[in-house]
Write a structure and sequence with these properties.
elongated; 195 residues; mainly alpha
């Protein structure tokens, strides 16, 4: 009985020791990397200029299918890389209301695939990537191969999701248009009656 209690106590404290070891690994390994990456990204933003990044967002928001790859591929990648999660969604402010749902879908779908190559983009979810990467490494495969494949598949997925979500949004906006026109007409009538 005493031996069982001793083993249970050792197992209990072992969980916290393993957590402490993992924490020390993160502090000595990934934390300096994240600080250097964030410093580099901020330097690039200052070098390129916030105005240019904002102008790119306005250009990507132009109407037409020709701008879809720019809106749902290039803009989300740049936003996630430079602004990181969750600030990357603010780039949608430069798009028309009709394009915002699809941009958001593309951007939110890319905050994980970018982690393997650029962990600064979504550090809050880094533990997910590190867990998968550690398992891949223990299986004898290279972590960088996984990171590159994850990134490339993410690019395809965000473009497809953006286009599909844009199609769905167009249908929903078209259905809402008559209702909004009725509401606007009712407001004009009510405003004219009170004036």
């Amino acid at each position: 009985m005493l031996d069982a209690l001793s083993r249970a106590a050792k197992a209990f404290i072992g969980v916290f020791q393993a957590g402490g070891d993992t924490f020390v690994d993160l502090v000595t390994g990934i934390l300096p990397l994240l600080i250097v990456l964030l410093t580099a990204v901020n330097a690039i933003i200052r070098f390129v200029g916030e105005e240019r990044i904002n102008k790119m967002g306005e250009f990507a928001g132009r109407p037409g299918l020709a701008f879809a790859p720019l809106r749902f591929l290039v803009l989300p990648v740049v936003a996630v890389f430079f602004l990181t999660n969750p600030a990357c969604y603010s780039m949608g402010a430069f798009l028309e209301e009709r394009n915002k749902p699809a941009f958001y879908d593309s951007a939110v779908s890319f905050v994980h695939p970018i982690l393997g190559l650029f962990p600064h983009a979504n550090p809050a979810e880094l533990f997910v990537w590190l867990g998968i990467a550690r398992g891949v490494q223990q299986a004898g495969f290279a972590q960088i191969d996984l990171a590159v494949r994850y990134f490339l598949v993410g690019l395809v997925v965000i473009l497809l999701r953006g286009i599909v979500t844009q199609g769905i949004a167009n249908i929903l906006f078209a259905r809402m248009a008559p209702d909004q026109e009725d509401d606007t007409q009712a407001e004009r009538t009510a405003g004219g009656a009170t004036a």
